[in-house]
Write a structure and sequence with these properties.
The chain is mainly alpha-helical and 200 residues long. The protein is built from 10 helices and no strands. The protein has helices spanning 2-16, 21-32, 36-55, 59-64, 68-93, 97-100, 107-119, 122-136, 142-166, 177-199.
């Protein structure tokens, strides 16, 4: 069971370390000290659901609907573009009293935004349902598949909670509106870059 678990862990860790909109959102919420636990839990559980579905063979369903990746790509790109606009607008008006005070939007609004970053990102499905699902076929025994899935799920919990709570170490740097402004501009550029990459 050790080899499937380690394979799942290392493969999933390699995917999750890539900078993406979901990671950036968790970082920003961590810096604002806003709903960190619930957002990290939501991201990790979402990954767990997708990884489990991929290992269970959900990739076959994706193959039955060839138009699904296209729809997901355009929807994800549109969301990333709009969120980038929102971050550029926030940088332009330069009002960060709420963020500096460690306050933010309500929990459900934050969850819905996080859900969009998670479930509208085609790369999430590629990494979890398709790639991890395909790699898991190297281990045909049910016990091996379970070990692989558990190994693949663990990095999500470790990464998101480390990112969300570790962001607080940067809190002293983020005590000025200018620092938040720079962060929002960088996030906006990243969102537009990811949107362009999706459509290229």
């Amino acid at each position: 069971m050790l080899i499937p678990a380690l394979t799942g862990f290392s493969t999933s860790a390699a995917f999750i370390l890539a900078i993406g909109p979901q990671n950036t959102f968790i970082l920003r919420q961590g810096l604002a000290r806003s709903h960190v636990f619930w957002l990290c839990l939501f991201c990790a559980v979402s990954d767990a659901i997708l990884i489990t579905a991929g290992v269970a063979g959900f990739g076959v369903i994706v193959g039955l609907f060839p138009s699904l990746p296209v729809i997901m790509t355009w929807g994800g790109a549109a969301f990333l573009f709009v969120y980038g606009v929102m971050r550029f607008y926030a940088a332009w008006i330069n009002k960060y009293e709420v963020e500096i005070a460690g306050k933010s939007v309500g929990l459900w609004a934050a969850i819905m935004t996080c859900a969009a970053f998670t479930w509208l990102n085609p790369h999430v499905y590629l990494d979890t349902l398709v790639l991890l699902g395909a790699i898991s076929t190297e281990f045909p025994e049910p016990s091996q598949k379970i070990a692989f899935a558990l190994g693949a799920i663990l990095p999500s919990f470790l990464f998101f909670f480390s990112l969300g709570y570790g962001a607080r170490l940067l809190a002293p740097v983020m005590q000025s509106a200018q620092a938040w402004r720079v962060l929002d501009v960088l996030i906006g550029v990243l969102m537009w870059g990811l949107a362009a990459k999706l459509l290229s």
